[in-house]
Amino acid sequence: IQKLQEELDRVRRHRADYRRQRRRQGISTISLVGYTNAGKSTLLNAITQSNVTAEDKLFSTLDPITRRVILPNDTTVLLTDTVGFIQKLPTTLIAAFRATLEEIQAADLILHVIDINHPNVLGQDQAVQEILEDIGLATRPRIVALNKADSLPSHQTTTSKIKSLKLDRDGVPAYLISAKTGWGLQPLLYALQSAVDNQSMDMER
Asked: pTM score, two decimals?
């Protein structure tokens, strides 16, 4: 246990140094968050042409993974894939999640990925929102990606699920996508670009 704790501390220090370096360079950061198996790693691969492990199993991504992304206006940002959330996270796993939570807290923008086709989509969405609130990120700029559109049975079902999520309650923009096929990714990238540009303008004022 002591050796594992020392390793976790080393990882935390390393990532803290990395975050300070990014800040000095003035590069905006975006954190991918979502319930486990929502498709975050698949989306990271699709946007960055990477080959990050994307498996249909619990906690396939344990360590934060960061890749560079070139937005449509040629702005470079950093996109970080984080561990998938679950409801009622066991206290024994909290230490292992600490590096992920710190990455999310340091992000300029949150990209919340939702499996729109999951039968418990409302419960998963609520679990993620509660965790974000618990770590003080309820008001952090956020964009929602409604993933796995390629598996939806009908347009009517899609419309019903989007309305039930009440995504417009906080003015959070939502984009229907398929990370697997690449459908809908271009509008999402433009939305990320607009959000990053708006934040840059706010910082200059």
From this structure: 0.78
In tens, the pLDDT along 138-185 reads 888 999 999 998 887 765 566 666 666 666 556 788 898 999 999 999
Sign of the dihedral defined by the CA atoms of residues 114, 170, 193, 14, in that order: negative
What is the pLDDT, as a whole number, of residue 93? 58
Q: Are 196 and 111 in contact (CB under 8 A)?
A: no
Shortest CA distance to 38 belongs to which of 141, 123, 134?
Answer: 123
CA distance 63 to 125: 22
Q: Quick check: 190 and 72 in contact, CB under 8 A?
A: yes
Cα pseudo-dihedral 141, 51, 177, 175, rounded to 10:
10
Can you tell me whether residue 108 is helix, strand or coil? coil
On whether the CB atoms of residues 114 and 147 are closer than 8 A, the answer is yes
